[in-house]
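User: Please write out a complete single-protein record containing the residue sequence and its fold in token form, without commentary.

AI:
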Amino acid sequence: MVDPEVVGLSRLQFALTALYHFLFVPLTLGMAFMLAIMESVYVMTRREIWKRMTQFWGVLFGINFAMGVATGVTMEFQFGTNWAYYSHYVGDIFGAPLAIEGMMAFFLESTLVGVFFFGWERTTPLKHMIATWFMALGTSLSALWILIANGWMQNPVGAAFNAQTMRMEVTKFSDVVLNPVAQAKFVHTVSAGYTMGAMFVLSISAWYLLRGRNVEFAKRSMTVAASFGLAASLSVVVLGDESGYTVSENQKMKMAAIEAMWETEPAPASFTLVGFPDVAKRETHAAIRVPWLMGLIGTRSIDEPILGIDSLVDDAKVRIADGIKAYDAMLVLRENKDDAQAKAILAAHDKDMGYALLLKRFMDDPRKATPADIERAAESTIPNVPVLFWSFRLMVACGFWFIGLFAYAFLRASKRRLEGKNFLRVALWSLPLPWVAAELGWIVAEYGRQPWAIEGVLPTALGASSLTPGQVWISLGGFVLFYTALAVIDGYLMVKFAKKGPDGLGMWPPSPAPLPTTTQTA
């Protein structure tokens, strides 16, 4: 049996470091494309203000990029320190996308970041713009390979268990790369990053306009941010729907938990707008439901049901019982790899062996499980329903807020009326919301996968290293201190340089006073 304290602490450490890291990653994704757009306008118009805009926002991009690299590199070491068995069990599959990301995307991205900062006077404007666009594409390519690895954890395709090596091995790498869950997560995640980059530029530009500083500079920046942000925020919602559909296809328990759907409803299922999930009674109090909506979102049909939590627990019991047969056959094959009967049994039930491994949390030998043990293991497949229920709804609420705000900003920009103080204050105070939405999205994705490290294949409890709680406490404390220091430094530098502005950094002369509302900002 595993030490639950070690597993819990290891999960907490990885969760905290991942959430810290994701404070920086999406802003890098969004800012890179904002820079490419601004520089493209400069190359087409040769107006100096667009070059200075690119350079100023590039300074803030560079600070954030450096912090993202620092947090990302250390986070990956935890697979070896805290999740040794996980690394052994699925390293052949999980490690490949990470290695490709490092060799192909990260090195490309890092090299072009250098060209962006140091190539202004060393190359032509057109060549520099092309390098900036490839830098932006490099950031998204980096995200693609990371999300291919993560998507495989959610939907482990293109791999099979080898009873002799006791490891998962790749059977078809193209299936891993083209995993529909990974592709849906990629487009949804990068769209969220683009939204964050647009909000960052919009909010800081609003701050300048509220103070009458760098007015022409800020107006142009807001116009780009409003246009790009509106397209990105609409994409987040549309592509988020696709991501939700893949969840309903491949992670039915996660979908049921997100909806606090305790029992299977007749098709098409209703969507619970708000409510208060009661885990003990397995019901949702004061629920406000929208008929048919969940069925349409989750199944794209009106005649397919979405299974409830109780039905999925019953299904897990059956799969655990089948998995015990596979587990027994696997042990036989380890002693005699030519046992034909054991091979046949394993081939028939190997898809359920991961469910038998859920029993390892409670006993050493799953073959000795009683019906009560199987019941207990099946119940452990239910994630934290209230956390998922509310995290999802707050994330979605933020998404619709972004659409409304960017649409209104785009309308004002098209009429060249960006100076309204109430609008500017709302834009400024909306700055933290993309980070809130992004972190909630990862809570839904990762917390909702529990108790699985690899969905249906490897329980989280089995993936941890053989450490003592004291050892994990030491590393946890070290990571928290290190990452908190980086977050504080990042925040300090971002605020410092944003307050300085392009005029304070000598990139553009300060405006003597706010310009009239009729001033052209082409």
